[in-house]
Amino acid sequence: METLMILLIGVLVSVATYLVLSRNVIRVILGTAVLSHAVHLLILTIGEVKKGEAPLLGNQTADGPYTDALPQALILTAIVISFAVTAFVLVLAFRAYKTNGTDDLEKLRGDEHD
Amino acid sequence: MMNSPLMPIIIPFAFAILLMFAPKQLRFQRAGALVGAILTVAASIWLLQKVYIDGIQVVTFGSWPVPYGITMVSDMVSILFVLTSSIITLFTIWYSFRTIGIAREQFFYYPGVLLMLVGVNGAFTTGDIFNLFVFFEVLLMASYLLSVLGGEKIQFRESIKYILVNVVSSALFVITVAMLYSVVGTLNMADIAQKVSDVNQPGILTAIAILFLVVFGLKAAIFPLFFWLPSSYSGPPIPVLALFGALLTKVGVYAITRTFTLFFTGDVAFTHTVLLYLSVATIVAGCIGALAVWDVKKIIIYNIIIAVGVILYGVATYNDTGLRGSMFYVVHDMLIKAALFFLVGIIVYITGQTNLKKMGGLMKRYPSLGWLYLIAAFSLAGIPPLSGFIGKMLLVKGGFEAEQFASGIWILLSSLIVLLSVIRIFVYAFWGKEQQLSPIKKTVYWQIWIPTAILVLLTVAYGVGADALMPYMTQAAEVLANPQLYIDAVKGGK
Predict the structure, then answer these.
(1) How many CB atoms neighbour CB B430 within 10 A?
(2) Inter-chain contact B181–A46, Cβ cutoff 8 Å?
(3) By the CB < 8 Å criterion, does A20 face chain B?
(4) Sign of the torsion formed by the C-alpha atoms of B96, B99, B105 and B108
(5) Where do transmembrane segments lie in this chain (chain A) (predicted)?
(6) Which of B194, B27, B9, B260 is CA-nearest to residue B120?
(7) Which residue of B has its CA nearest to A109?
(8) What's the pLDDT at B208?
(9) DSSP result, B216-247
(10) What does the pLDDT read at residue B269?
(11) Is 50 exceeded by the pLDDT of residue B494?
(12) b/e map of B308-339 (b: 16 or more CB within 10 Å)?
């Protein structure tokens, strides 16, 4: 199971890298979103994907081992953080498009050293 | 009081929240920010004394037993960073009153500054690796706001790149933490430090060490990862730039110092040699940049990169003298970089431009500014009675003790290049033929001159009083050199 997950994460990271290296701002932002998905899946995988109950103590029928609760909390934290940053970047890209009149990163280069 | 390590984090946080209630009230904003920063500095000084007398201060949230709760640790290293950051934020707020512009002040500028201080102080104080990530994001979020606030064309252009680089490096940080968790099964730094020696998997741990170096190197702008810094720091206005230049890269430096003295001490021959080469290469890259540009802001910006290399050199040599030198140098460098950015800000305010070639003859009309700049420049280069000297001397001595003669000599030579690069500003802007200047308000000039002068005097006092500070630095180097001290303090000697 872990091997399968790692392969999927590898694919996601490759896709993200490809997108981040493109010229269009929106594609770059999509790339960072895919990258954050990959990262969150990696945390989940790294806590070992073993069969176990959902970590809810109130679940009376369950008596077996529970899944590791810590990676889930880490992912939850990482998700809200990357959500906030993505929202910020999207608005920034919108404003930058309105101000600079382009979404092409090649054209957003600074002045050369004088 | 048990919660003393939290004070430098809670105080600016409380004031930032308070300031958000009335963004348009200028007086309230300024007074609130100033009071918040002063209280933070006071709390940090108090905590410094407490750590100095009583030893390392530890708080675990919710009174959970140690590896299970989040621990905040104030040892001498972190409190020195915290105190310096708080002082710089205080001066930046003071300097901002006349320079940042009312439109920015009325749009959550001061809450942004205080929240960045929260993130920075939190990152220095935390004892939990995932909590470090969260505090990184706190300070990065605030820095995104500050870098784009005002909405000029260049700010939009540069902050897009700045944010993208940081988003990618944050993702890498989480990947690295995930891998470390899978190897050691814990997130508490003291617990990790103890377990890395138990798990006995040197190969994978060395790989994680290098990943951490990449992650924190992106924040700290070390050699192959500094490419984003010169352009993205040229976007924001001067007070924000001073804050970024003094604090943000130093958070990365602190994180490298912490991880490479606490976790990754197993394979020093490899990891610290990599760090040594990278730090020397960082200095080379910074020197080339500092000599190549004619923009006054960028000259100082490239000097940030040089200083990062110099500080990490002390960590790489990994002996008592070198670590002490690093601690001396990092405090000096944070103070002097802020002072230099303030000075450059005044020069830009007077001349109305950043191009060095179009300046000249300022000495006649602004002699006090000229002398102040000269002191700061000499201090940066490390001329003996001033603050840069003692740190660099210890660093070079530590390098020689580790038998790294070539790199030690290169550190000395790089001082000459640093001196040349900053003296160039003095020669071109203050000497030479007087240029036509547009009239400026004299009161504004003096109002931004005063905080700058006090900060420069502070660095002079730091250099002259190095002897009095030596016990603090020795204690800091001791903690860095013996991770067991840190582990025992957090885990209660178990």
Answers:
(1) 21
(2) yes
(3) yes
(4) negative
(5) 6-21, 28-49, 69-94
(6) B9
(7) B157
(8) 94
(9) HHHHHT-GGG-TTHHHHHTSS-HHHHHHIIII
(10) 87
(11) no
(12) bbbbbbbbbbbbbbbbbbbbbbbbbbbbbbbb
B187: chain A residues, CB-CB within 8 Å: 70
**Residue A114 pLDDT level (bands cut at 50, 70, 90):** very low
Comparing CB atoms, the residue among A95, A100, A114 nearest residue B355 is A114
The average confidence (pLDDT) of chain B is: 92
Query: pTM for the whole thing?
Result: 0.94
The C-alpha atoms of residue B100 and residue B93 are separated, in whole angstroms, by: 10
Contacts of A74 in chain B (CB under 8 A): 130, 174, 177-178
Q: At what angle do helices B387-401 and B320-351 cross, to 10 degrees?
A: 140
Q: What distance in Å separates the CA atoms of residue B147 and residue B154, rounded to the nearest whole number?
A: 10
β-strand partners of A66: A53
Binary contact (B178, A25; C-beta < 8 A): no
Which of A25, A85, A99 is facing B153, going by the closest CB pair?
Answer: A99
Q: Tell whether A73 lies on the interface with B, counting CB pairs under 8 A.
A: no
* Token pair in block for residue B439: 């009239």
Structure tokens at B332: 């000096």
More confident residue, B342 or B152: B342
Q: What is the pLDDT of residues B78-123, one digit of tens each?
A: 999 999 999 999 999 999 999 999 999 999 999 999 999 999 999 9
- Nearest Cα residue to B411 out of B284, B250, B270, B326: B284
pLDDT, tens digit (0-9, with 9 covering 90-100), for B210-269: 999 999 999 999 989 999 999 889 889 999 999 999 999 999 999 999 999 998 888 888
What does the pLDDT average to over B468-478?
93
pLDDT of B71 above 90: yes
Which residue from B134, B101, B94, B102 is spatially nearest to B118, judged by alpha carbons?
B134
Among candidates B141, B161, B295 on the partner chain, residue whose Cβ is nearest the Cβ of A84? B141
Are B81 and B5 within 8 A, CB to CB? no
Asked if B137 lies within 8 A of A85 by C-beta distance, the reply is: yes
pLDDT score of B415 more than 50: yes
Output the CA angle B205-B209-B213, nearest 5 degrees.
170
State the average pLDDT over residues B167-186. Answer: 94
For residue B439, pLDDT beyond 90:
no
Which pair of tokens denotes residue B437? 């200047």
In B352-465, alpha helices (H) = 362-365, 367-381, 387-401, 405-425, 442-464
- Per the CB < 8 A criterion, the answer to whether B85 and B47 are in contact is no
Give the gap in angstroms from C-alpha A71 to the nearest C-alpha of chain B: 8
Give me the residue from B154, B158, B171 closest to A36, CB to CB: B171
The token duo for B179 is 């891998």
Shortest Cα distance, chain A CAs vs residue B294, angstroms: 7
**B438 has pLDDT over 80:** no
Q: What is the mean pLDDT of chain A?
A: 88
Residues 6+ apart with CB under 8 A from A57: none
